Amino acid sequence: VLAILGVVNIIYGALNSFAQSNMKRRLAYSSVSHMGFVLLGIASFTDLGISGAMLQMISHGLIASLLFFLAGMTYDRTHTMAMDEMGGIGQAMPKVFTLFTVAALASLALPGMSGFVGELSVFVGIATSDIYSSTFRTVTVFLAAVGVILTPIYLLDLLRQVFYSNNIASGCDLPNNGLQIGNQEAVCFGTNCILPVDADFDDARPREVFVAACFLVLIVGIGIYPKLVMQMYDVKTVAVNAQVRQSYTQISQANSQFLTQGLMAPKIAKAELAPVLGVVK
User: Quick one: which of 5, 14, 48, 89 has the fewest CB in 10 Å?
Assistant: First the structure.
């Protein structure tokens, strides 16, 4: 059940992200999709899978925090979350654009970032699990891979709409909070305002760059050397997984009808192999 819920989360969250024109809503559905990998790792009943699920939670916490922080910075300057109303601001705010791009690449599990290690561990864990049949493992990995493919599509589309698109037209009926005209700062920007092409918006301030850089250091550090974090919980995850597998084996042996011979056909270790697998003492 956990594996199925995990796959549903991954696909459902990714597909719903496409339908969002609001930046924060798209990032929120992206979080739903990424949490599916956590469920999938737990459902693998393997040490590597559960360890990957833990790492995915930590990684996504850092990446999502950075993305929402940058979204807040963008809103502070444009006063809108509608992506089709703020297109083309990348040239006006290059620092924000750079930080947002790096954060998006981290979210789509670029190698060298923490998200890549977590998702890879989950994939290997579910693919090598001896709890499920080979058919179920193949279908699960395939559907999860579809979610991985969808992730860069909706995140890169977000970057395209917000920073690359040229939806900007000359003139603006409302003053702009981020607009600098000479030495005088303008005062407002409405959601229906049309941004001037040559607007000089406030770029990321040093304090904001510092906060974003702190997140990026942790994200890249974990991506390059994941053992830095994994060693803090590895022993616990191994112990918890051993107890879960032992309980699963005892329940399935006590009630043979608990197992089905359909798509989900768990392969419980034989008695003589159980001690080797660490299922039964």
Answer: 5
3-state secondary structure of 204: coil
The pLDDT tens digits for 146-170 are 999 999 999 999 999 888 866 554 3
| Domain residue extents for the chain | 2-167+206-277, 168-201
Pure H helices in 79-129: 94-107, 114-127
> What is the chain's length?
281
pLDDT digits (tens, 9 = 90+) for 1-13: 789 999 999 999 9
Query: Residue 165 has what pLDDT?
Result: 66
Give the three-state DSSP class for 132. Answer: coil
Judged on CB neighbours under 10 Å (0-12, 13-18, 19+), 277 is: middle
| SS3 assignment, position 22 | strand
- This prediction has a pTM of 0.77
Q: How far apart are CA 123 and CA 46, in angstroms?
A: 11
Cα–Cα distance for residue pair 92/211, rounded to 1 Å: 21
CB atoms near residue 206 (< 10 Å): 8
Q: Which residues pair with 180 in a beta bridge?
A: 185
**Distance (Å) of CA 94 to CA 110, 164, 214:** 21, 11, 19
**Which of the pair, 199 or 79, is modelled with greater confidence?**
79
Average pLDDT over residues 241-252: 71
Determine the Cα–Cα distance for residues 35 and 20; give it in Å rounded to an integer. 19
